[in-house]
Amino acid sequence: MGLTCDTSTSPRRCVAFTCDAGKYLANDVCVDVGIGYWSPANSNERRACTNAPANAEYTSPAATQADCPWTCKAGYRRDSTGTKCVESSTAQLLTCAADEVAVGIHGRAGAWLDALGMRCARSDSGTIIGAATSATAIGGSGGTAFTRDCGPGAVLHEVTGINGWAKAPVNQSWWSEINLSTIEVSCRNLQTGEINSLTKVGGSSSCILGKETYSFQCGGNGLVRGFVVDSANTSTYVGYMLDLSCR
Question: Nearest-CA neighbor of 43 among 23, 27, 61, 26?
């Protein structure tokens, strides 16, 4: 337990305090627990995370529960159960920096995603600091440029959409099964918890039936830091959405 004291009185008056979730007491100051550790509310100690599977790494510097956010290492992706990392030579991470969170997306799109990257901002103790910046995008130069930013104080919450267009008569002959067809993100205000959806990107009235849908969000109090996409076709377009990287 920590103590904060009024040095202007004699004798000094001291009040005991405990740290918020995701922080621990170091040199009489509450600081982030650091990547690979977690702490619940009203506890001044940090505890080691143990839930990540093989070939994964922890991502949050301020985890608040034993189920610490993690992502698969480069060259791996989550399996169908979401609990293991399996080898994947085409998995590629689109990510913000370690001290940033995702507050939007940018890229180029037409009937599918030609390019995609993260919009990022620094985050400290549940507060967004400074303006959003664009992280490097992958993909080509086709389509029309777009930016989708969350509002002030909000971060990416969920990503949904369609991976590939189905080989079906209702779709045009130029359909593609291997590209990221659409993406739609929702945002969560860190203070109020309000969730809002941003306008969908990609898609075409000429292609109606998708090959498969996807939906990802970070569990608990985890914050989105990036996307994991299939990079097999990223010299020209964006591949399938495979997973999120959370912190």
Answer: 23
